[in-house]
Amino acid sequence: MAMHNPPHPGGIVRRQCLEPLGLTVTAAADHLGVSRQSLSELVNEHAGVSVDMAIRLTKAFGSTPETWLGLQMAYDLWQARRRIDDIKVDRIEAA
Amino acid sequence: MAMHNPPHPGGIVRRQCLEPLGLTVTAAADHLGVSRQSLSELVNEHAGVSVDMAIRLTKAFGSTPETWLGLQMAYDLWQARRRIDDIKVDRIEAA
DNA sequence: TCAATTTGACAAGCGGCACTTGACAGACTA
DNA sequence: TAGTCTGTCAAGTGCCGCTTGTCAAATTGA
Q: Which of A38, A90, B6, B81 would you call most buried, defined as having the most Cβ atoms within 10 angstroms of its Cβ?
């Protein structure tokens, strides 16, 4: 059921939140209560959605913190699957 | 639909994974490929489930990375809701 | 009972990352 | 032309997951 290639949440913020409202990064950062650089890094996909940011996005644009963090989780997991074979684990069979 | 008071994933690892199999923290850490301290901190609820750890838990005990990380997300979010009123955001109305 | 194992904790250190303020040059705009 | 917006760099802070090494206390087993 996992998405084929999950988008970075930052791009979603840009396309689904900022652009439809004609909001600049500077203005949106001001509303969110974070620095312009911090939001810029997010929307340019150089930073992820933190718990704090998920709450801010929800308060400002709606949806739920679970949704925002779920997008981030899906993205992180997709990236991690690239190196999944590097993670060596002894499967546990029985006691 | 959020859980009332989500358990820390570390407790679940201890009760649902280690104890049923009679696994010691030391032995399980060895199987997981992490240090004893690292797993100890998790099961004693002093550390969270990272993406890396979620993959290790899945490989060793089953379930899915999404499930493990989802448990962590639910826990983190529950904790964050305590200070949710401290996060000041200007709700965005219109352009 | 004695010895080995297990445990939780502490310390020091490393790397990553989200966040801040300050600054800069380039682009766009009124 | 002047002001705004942008991406990015730098420097610094704090948190956290992870490591190795160590320790005392508790548990376990021959």
A: B6
